[in-house]
Amino acid sequence: MKKNFIVFCACLLVFCIVFAVSCTKKDAVEKLTVWIYDSGRIEALTEIGKKFEAEYGIPVEVSLVDLTQVRNQFLLASGGPECADLAIIPHDNIGPLVENGMILEVNLGDKRGDFLEPALAGFSYNGRLYGVPIAVENIGFFYNPELVPVPPETWDEAVRITEELKRQGRVEYMFGCPDATYNMYPVYDSFGGSIFGKNPDGSLDGTDILIAERGFVQGLEFLANMVRRGLIPETIDWESAHVLFESGKVPFAFTGPWALPRFKTSGVPYVITTFPGARRGQPGNPFLGVQGVIVSSVSPRRLLANTFAVEYIATEENMLALSLAEGRPSAWRSIFETSGDADTLGFNSAGVNAVPMPSVPQMGHVWDAWEAAAALAFSRERPAMAALQNAKAQIESLSK
């Protein structure tokens, strides 16, 4: 009798342990959480999540979270409920996350060829892929066809066109500067400028800062010279740059998809095309922004999260749904190449060789120093070379 009681207790103990473990596992995979900072994709991602739940029995919860919180929580995450399993972020945020070991490396396998190479490059860090690209975006070169029937191929042509239009009293400037950095990057690029050097494997070397080198300096010298000649306003201002184009006071504009609603509302005629270059046949290239899905490396559900990203999001059907929901060009090659919208085709042509925004941590120190250097050059307080040398020293000091 005593023996039977001991056996019964032992069995009961085993059952309790198994039950507790199963409950723990159930809690661990109760749901997958996805954070996004742009509301446009919530419905599409939720529908993709339903497909995942139908196969795995695990629901997917999609939440709108401020991008700053996404970055901070992923950096501070310890596997607890304070952080999501997956998130959609811009690619230039991955540097610190990779350096701190907070996101998983992604293997797309045979699907890799379905993505645009620049999109993959954007989510690569030290030669490894750390996200599933979803969408790409870049600015384009806008021109007013009522003022300029044929767009210029070089900056010199753009100058000649503007000078003639000014002589006729039809425009005030060539274009306004929404900033002197991100939106003006095609100018620097067209003269051969780069922000960072590269490692032997082709990845960016954040310690090799090139903004005081010849090509970059020539780009700023061109812009500063246009200010001195009265072809570009000295004031660097996002709003006024767009108003100048909307009101027909400039023939050209440097901007992105976010400006389309206001341009359409104003009624200004526009066409989007490639940027002019310092030389014919060598157009300037804008920065490329890539949005994609990252997977938390400390999530207890990271394997399932990775499956959701690679096997469910990364399909042509679901990538098309995400593209239609949010409006940015898709990172999926076949969808990108078959878009028939004139505006999208214009942005795509401008960005065919776009430069992925640097994701190395040092880039965080570049923006303010670069903008300050341009302001000094525009106001003639310092020559372009001296202003950029000062900016370089500032970036190096902050990056130590």
Order of helices and strands: HEHEHEHHEEEEHHEEHHEHEEHHHHEHH
Residue share in helix: 40-55%
Catalogue the unreliable spans.
Answer: 1-28
What is the terminal-to-terminal distance?
75 Å
Strand count: 13
Oligomer: single chain
Largest sheet: 6 strands, mixed
Can you name the CATH architecture of the largest domain?
Answer: 3-Layer(aba) Sandwich
For the record, the count of structural domains works out to 2
Shape annotation: globular
CATH class category of the largest domain: Alpha Beta
Overall mean pLDDT score? 91
What would the CATH topology of the largest domain be?
D-Maltodextrin-Binding Protein, domain 2
Instruction: Report the C-alpha radius of gyration, rounded.
Output: 26 Å
Name of the CATH superfamily of the largest domain: Periplasmic binding protein-like II
Structural class: alpha/beta
Strand content: 5-15%
Task: Give the count of helical stretches.
Answer: 16
Key descriptive features of the protein:
single chain; 400 residues; alpha/beta; D-Maltodextrin-Binding Protein, domain 2; 2 domains; six-stranded mixed beta sheet; three-stranded antiparallel beta sheet; 16 helices; disordered N terminus
Structure write-up:
It is built from 16 helices and 13 strands. The chain is α/β, with parallel strands linked by helices. The protein folds into two domains: about 30-135 and about 290-350, Periplasmic binding protein-like II (D-Maltodextrin-Binding Protein, domain 2), CATH 3.40.190; about 140-285 and about 360-400, Periplasmic binding protein-like II (D-Maltodextrin-Binding Protein, domain 2, 3-Layer(aba) Sandwich). Strands 1, 2, 3, 6, 12 and 13 form a six-stranded mixed sheet that branches. It has a three-stranded antiparallel sheet with strand order 10-7-11. A two-stranded antiparallel sheet has the order 4-5. Strand 8 (about 195-200) and strand 9 form a beta hairpin.
